[in-house]
Amino acid sequence: MRIELTVNGERREADDVWEGESLLYALRERLGLPGSKNACEQGECGSCTVYLDGTPVCACLVAAGQAQGREVTTVEGLGSAESLDPVQQAFLERGAVQCGFCTPGLIVSTHDLLQRNPNPSDPEIREALAGNLCRCTGYEKIMDAVRTAAEATR
Ligand code: FES
Ligand code: FES
């Protein structure tokens, strides 16, 4: 089947999408957007987090067909290489990126948190990011990055 959707503000379409295909697969393999990562494909790790109509979802758990006519924003759509989003900048500055597999999902989840709550407490940050697993950093640098991003966006 063909799907048509808006991705990062642009009208996009993909052909030959099969019924069980995930939005994550379509984004990465059909639309050339490899920012969202596939680490578990089971909704456990959060590395594939994208916005779907403004709500963060695990793109591995959404069928590509469910995104028909809807609006998707990926980590690529939050900023550009020339003009990073403050959350992207904070992750870079605070050394919160090691292997980077978890990073796109954490950035989208942090972006969402700060839109809802510009001044989160540490427990609120931990709760908001509980669905995003990181094997590398021990989370301290990620906490630093979120606090820095919160200061930058307030
Ligand atoms: S790849 Fe989607 S939650 Fe892990
Ligand atoms: S930086 Fe490697 S999983 Fe988080």
From TrEMBL:
SUPFAM superfamilies: 2Fe-2S ferredoxin-like, CO dehydrogenase ISP C-domain like. It comes from the Bacteria. Pfam families: Fer2, Fer2_2. CDD domains: fer2. The keyword Iron applies. InterPro entries: 2Fe-2S-bd, 2Fe-2S-bd_dom_sf, 2Fe-2S_ferredoxin-like_sf, 2Fe-2S_ferredoxin-type, 2Fe2S_fd_BS, Beta-grasp_dom_sf, Diverse_Oxidoreductases. The keyword Transmembrane helix does not apply. One of its GO terms (molecular function) is metal ion binding. Keywords: 2Fe-2S, Iron, Iron-sulfur, Metal-binding, Oxidoreductase. Residues 1-78 form the 2Fe-2S ferredoxin-type domain. PANTHER family: OXIDOREDUCTASE WITH IRON-SULFUR SUBUNIT, XANTHINE DEHYDROGENASE IRON-SULFUR-BINDING SUBUNIT XDHC-RELATED. This is Carbon-monoxide dehydrogenase small subunit.
